[in-house]
Amino acid sequence: MTLFAFLLLFAGAIFAYTLNLRAAQSIRNGGGNLHSLTSFHGMYAFLLVLIPAFVFLLVWLSFQGTVINALVQRSLPADVTAGLESGPLQLIMAEIASIAGGRMFGTPDEWKLAAADRLVNLRVTSQWLMVAFLLAIIAGCIYVARKRVSATFRARQGAESIVHALMVFCSVVAVFVTIGIVASLVFETFRFFQMVPWYEFVFGTVWEPQIPIREDQIAAEGAFGLIPVFLGTLVITVIAMIIAIPVGLGSAIFLNEFASPRFRSIVKPVLEVLAGVPTVVYGFFAVLTIAPALRVFGETWGLPIAPNTALAAGIVMGFMLVPFISSFADDALSAVPRSLRDGALALGATRGETMMNVLFPAAIPGIVGGVLLAVSRAIGETMIVVMAAGLIAKMTINPLDSVTTVTVQIVTLLIGDTSFDSPKTLSAFALGMVLFLVTLVINIFAIRIVRKYREIYD
Amino acid sequence: MTDINTDQAKAERFDWDGAEYSARVNKRKRSELRLKAIGLTAIAAALGMLFLLLSSLISTGYHAFTQTHIKFDVTYDPEFINPDNLARSDYRGLIREVMRENFPEATDDDLRMLSGILSNAAQFKIRDRIVEDPSLLGQTISLNIPVSDPYDQLNKGLINRDTPEQFRRVNDAEIAAFDVLVSRDVVTKPFNWALFTNADSRFPELAGLKGAIVGSFYALLICFALSFPIGIGAAIYLEEFAPRNKVSDLIEVNINNLAAVPSVVFGLLALAVFIGWFGMPRSAPFVGGMTLALMTLPTIIIATRAALKAVPPSIREAALGVGASKQQVVFGHVLPLAMPGILTGTIIGLAQALGETAPLLLIGMNAFITAAPSTPFDSSTALPTQIFIWADSPERGFVSRTSAAILVLLGFLIFMNAIAIFLRNRFERKW
Amino acid sequence: MNMYDTERTEAALDVKNLKISATGVNVHYGQNHALKDVSVQIQDNTVTAFIGPSGCGKSTFLRCLNRMNDTIDICRVDGEILLDGRDIYDKGVDPVQLRARVGMVFQKPNPFPKSIYENVAYGPKIHGLTRSKSEMDQVVERSLRKAALWNEVKDRLQEPGTALSGGQQQRLCIARAIATSPEVLLMDEPCSALDPIATAQVEELIDELRSSFSVVIVTHSMQQAARVSQKTAFFHLGSLVEYGDTSTIFTNPTDPRTESYITGRIG
User: Order of strands across the sheet with B187-188?
Assistant: First the structure.
């Protein structure tokens, strides 16, 4: 049905195109002097039909499920839903949905069967309504477009201003994404700070987001101190950078100055593969290979290495960031003008001296920008740490120990069924806010540096 | 100038051939060699890590591409089968009977153990066969049935028979029983099609990637449908039409920053806005695709702008010169020339989106779902989240399946990147 | 005819004062034959100018003299170039050492992004030519004085070299090149990026440098060649057309191509 609706949409638009094209042609054939080419009349009608109908379809498809669910939920017997929280209610709705889909487990209650029937009916109705509305919109737009056709109508300007408006809309989408990120983070964080004071979050040194399940439970109060979590992020970031910076810079220096073109053309893309591997793969690799290897290493040397040591996640993350740093450094080194390199070589400097005394120092601003972007990546990296780092927040900087990170907490707090009314889930948004702000500051700074650097040598 | 005597300067000329100088040159050469060695070591370390990554995935993953099966003669004995309700007959009993036929001297306890050799899916497999063809009642057919995970591991040599019994997942009696079956030549190890034709399952021997692949496909489709037109529209506007002012500067800075926002933050956005405020369904590839589209958008915009920039201005001037409107020039001449570059960037962006995990976790695409989604609005997993689920599963059989799933994912990524590279090489134009 | 003339000029050279002697030099960039069988004798304490239209191979030949062409992967140099009688393309010769003895100044001023002092001190430092800080200070001062820059920068030696004006930057590069006390100074169109006043200063400087070095200058300005050089070589399409005393070349060229170039008909 949805596919049919889209076909209908395009058929309508094409119909509008030919209709207006013909109309314009007949005016011209009748001796009229058209302002715009006939095809622009067609194009104008095409766009005028396509866009509103398309927007309508998208909106309808996005929200029909929500509306239908709400309707079914409202029609449930009052004695069943009374006093139910969102969690159990969602379970009931899921069961009804699966009954409606023909998957039954045991013998469901009578009212569930009824609700499932209603759900199926509503879905069918919704589909028909959608097509009906769609047809109405298409017909209306065709009518409007057809009325416009006349010798003096500036169809080209009309069509072009529609296209122009579309393009402006597209560029603004990116801005809306940012606004959406900021709005959602700010809004949920604000709600979090209504439950937990902000100074506790910013200055607290204990992170135990488990809140009491029952009212009378006294065991865990729930503590939301950011510091140990962020410390964990820093520990892993530092480990990653200790790997990524020397390895990345070393390979960039070699590839830029010493490698033969053939070696470079093979090794560089292979290195880039490291950056293309999805992070979930690195996470599994850290758990599968690196962590056990470190444990064996620790046992032989008598080091107390935790099973999910920060080292495992940090090392793997470091190698993931190597191509990132090396390609930034390579670009920065290549951006240093050849004349500087010639100048040093002409003084009798070796290639090594040219690199270390002249090219590298000259490229440092660009390299620093790249390293900063890599740091921001490391801070925001999620899957490696979710799989390979720990869950318990500790005030430690011991890399052998297990630490948790901001991203790990965000994911673990929000995985599974969540409702947006406990400080536990809302704290994830506060953490997200911190993550967003920290990475934003680093990114802006890094992009500035890189851009400044490019300007120097351009 | 006057205070420097030319002859004196000549007299001071350095002894370039002296031993001291050549020693110094040698030292400098050595330090250059050291720098080279450091660089090579760094490259070797990075490549070594890549090699280690791939080899550990392949060495654990290739096992999952085969699955141990046992061929049994199954008799649809009316003693166990209720012809009126074929779907709910005693297939467990039937399996016991099959085992009793194969091991006539076995006790009841043994039979329970022997039934455990077969996968939990055995009863469904036997059931489905007769439900499909009720005339089989009372007849005997030969069926290839997957074995359960521990025996699969045993058959693949992943369980060391020398380990003490209490540390082993199969005890001596179980091994003996399995070896009897092996000696009867009924054990086979064909290609594991179930890995691609089944959806997820709690049992490793049944778990497959179909749901995840279909889910990822839907998500990528949505992602492409949204990000490609919007990205191109935005890029064309910013590159060709936007006036150079504060607003377009702001949009540009914003896009650059968006490209560097951590992916998990996009997950938070999707969770709060799409699911929390708009009430869209959890775990749906549709929502996943929308989230991925937001992340892919900056990549496509940046790639498209670069491709547009690479089209020389002379083309625009030539078209403008013959009286085409600015839009006609851009859509008729510049865009087609930039298309290969745009497509390359888009495919690379989509490949990134395919591997993206964290935002999908936050919108619940890590649910345990045993059927492939039939529309983008059904609950589903995606390939990377399926990897995450399996990596977290305690059963041993999931280790190799996780690696196998990763190999499948990497296969898709390599395929997409190969297309991108092909496009770039095939259509790349030097102006 | 032409050949005999060249031989006659060569015979007239003071053999004792011979600094560089190049015979049969050919340069290929990949498939491109950039320099064809060039033979030149360069004297000590003389300014030798290479002139010719752009792309004629004069800069390529200059870069052969300190083996800067080695740094280009696709470049191949054949032939014999002797510096004080020793083949600089001999396996035993280290380009690193050679370049300290044959300094070079480039078309565009290219000071390192370091302080003025460090720029000048860089060569002596890497080659270990000084033993103490005070000795280095002397070398820096002497080089800057020779480059006629000392008075302008003596109070701001720690400022970055890139902060100087274009003409000052070029003189800084000259100071940097002569700080290792080279025997030959190669200059690749050293004034093309400078304004007329700075050009005049650098030209004056070149004339003074002649007392200590053999200077080879590539220029596309014939007036400049006439002003600063004693010997001139005219290159055209990768070949050396004519070589001799500057006054002879400019007043009485033997080859019609040289005459055409000098009178402005080709180039």
Answer: B140-146, B69-75, B187-188
Distance from CA of B415 to the nearest CA of C (A): 35
Looking at domain B210-427, its CATH class is: mainly alpha
> pLDDT tens digits for C33-63?
888 899 999 988 899 999 988 888 888 899 9
Which of B3, B4, B25 shows the shortest C-beta gap to C96?
B25
Predicted complex ipTM: 0.89
* Cross-chain residue pair C94–B25, CB shorter than 8 Å: yes
Among the partner-chain residues B258, B268, B278, the one whose CB lies closest to the CB of A66 is: B278
Which residues in chain C have Cβ-Cβ distances shorter than 8 Å to B21?
97, 127-128
Question: A346 and C99 in contact by Cβ < 8 A?
Answer: yes
Touching subunits for chain B (3+ Cβ pairs under 8 A): A, C
Would C169 be classed as within a structural domain? no
Query: Pairing state of beta strands C214-218 and C184-188?
Result: parallel
Per residue in A348-388, pLDDT (tens digit) is 899 999 999 999 999 988 899 899 999 999 999 999 999 99
Inter-chain touch C110–A340, beta carbons under 8 Å:
yes
- Per-residue pLDDT at C94 exceeds 60: yes
CATH code that applies to domain A223-457: 1.10.3720.10
Listed by number, the residues of chain B in 3-42 with a beta carbon closer than 8 Å to a beta carbon of chain C are 3-4, 6, 9-10, 12-14, 16, 20-21, 24-25, 28-29
- Sign, CA dihedral C95-C101-C102-C107, equals positive
CB spacing of C126 vs B28 below 8 angstroms: yes
Q: Which residues contact B82 (CB under 8 A, 6 or more apart)?
A: B88, B89, B90
The burial class, CB within 10 Å (0-12 / 13-18 / 19+), for B185 is: exposed
Partner residue facing B46 (CB), from A169, A251, A280: A251
| Cβ pair B281:A270 closer than 8 A | no
| Structural domain spans, chain A | 2-179, 223-457
How far is Cα B365 from Cα B373, in angstroms, rounded to an integer? 12
Residue B134 has what DSSP assignment?
G
The residue ranking higher by pLDDT, B105 or B302, is B302
Cα separations in angstroms, A205 against A200, A228, A230, A233, A236: 9, 6, 10, 14, 18
Is pTM, for the whole model, over 0.80?
Answer: yes
For position C91, which CATH number holds?
A: 3.40.50.300
- CA A68 → CA A93, A104, A109, A115, B274, distances in Å? 11, 21, 21, 11, 16
Q: Which two tokens stand for residue B342?
A: 């745009």
Could you report the per-residue pLDDT of B197-222, keeping only the tens digit for each? 888 888 888 888 999 999 999 999 99
Report H helices in B156-244.
172-183, 194-197, 210-236
Smallest CA–CA separation between A110 and chain B, in Å? 23
CB contact under 8 A, A345 and C71: yes
Would you say residue C166 lies in a domain? no
pLDDT per position as a tens digit, A408-445: 999 988 886 566 677 888 889 999 999 999 999 999 88
B269 in contact with chain A, both atoms CB, cutoff 8 A: yes
Residue B406 confidence class, pLDDT cut points 50, 70, 90:
very high
- 3-state SS, residue C10: helix
Q: How far, in Å, CA of A318 to CA of B99, rounded?
A: 54
Mark yes or no for CB contact C181/B3 under 8 Å. no
Whether A177 sits inside 8 A of B52 (CB atoms) is no
pLDDT digits (tens, 9 = 90+) for B216-251: 999 999 999 999 999 999 999 999 888 888 888 888
| Domain span holding position C238 | 2-110+176-262
Could you give the angle at the alpha carbon of A216 between the alpha carbons of A213 and A221, nearest 5°?
60
Return the axis-axis angle of helices C116-127 and B19-61, rounded to nearest 10°. 100
> Domain residues of chain B, as ranges?
65-192, 210-427
